[in-house]
């Protein structure tokens, strides 16, 4: 079981919420962001992911993993903070993922990264920062 070729990432959006219309299958993202400001840690945040992969056909596995960016850079094999496993059965040439995560706990300020793989091969990543909210 493997995709015919490694897909490309057409779009990757981190947001407050993703809505997918049941009839049209169109997706809308609400509250797109690249940073989360928190008043204290640990903190739990709900958010959504919209990912569109193109040049994807056949049957294979897509993994979406959230890790601290310094763990990825060091290659120290740190455990991912969370993951979503999806099987894609498509001949359309593209696949959209509209995922709303119920809550992810961040224990400290840092840069984090979502890593997308297809059949265990790197496809793309999306980085964002979780930090203290400026006092004002």
Question: How would you sum up this structure, described in words?
Answer:
- With 136 residues, the protein is mainly beta.
- The protein is built from one helix and eight strands, in the order βββββαβββ.
- It has one helix at residues 69-74, and strands spanning 8-15, 17-20, 27-30, 35-38, 43-68, 82-106, 110-118, 121-132.
- The strands form two sheets. Strands 1, 4, 5, 6, 7 and 8 form a six-stranded mixed β-sheet that branches. Strands 2-3 form a two-stranded antiparallel sheet.
- A hairpin with a 6-residue loop joins strand 2 (17-20) and strand 3 (27-30).
- The relative contact order is 0.30.
Kindly list the characteristics that best describe this protein.
8 strands, 136 residues, two-stranded antiparallel ribbon, six-stranded mixed sheet, globular, mainly beta, 1 helix
Structural class estimated from helices and strands:
mainly beta
Number of strands: 8
Mean pLDDT: 86
> Overall 3D geometry?
globular
Strand content: over 45%
String of helices and strands: EEEEEHEEE
Note the total helix count: 1
Rg computed from alpha carbons, rounded to a whole number of angstroms = 16 Å
Largest sheet, strands/sense/barrel: 6 strands, mixed
Report, as a whole number of angstroms, the end-to-end distance.
Answer: 54 Å
* Helicity level: under 10%
Taking pLDDT < 50 over at least 5 consecutive residues as the criterion, the unreliable ranges are: none
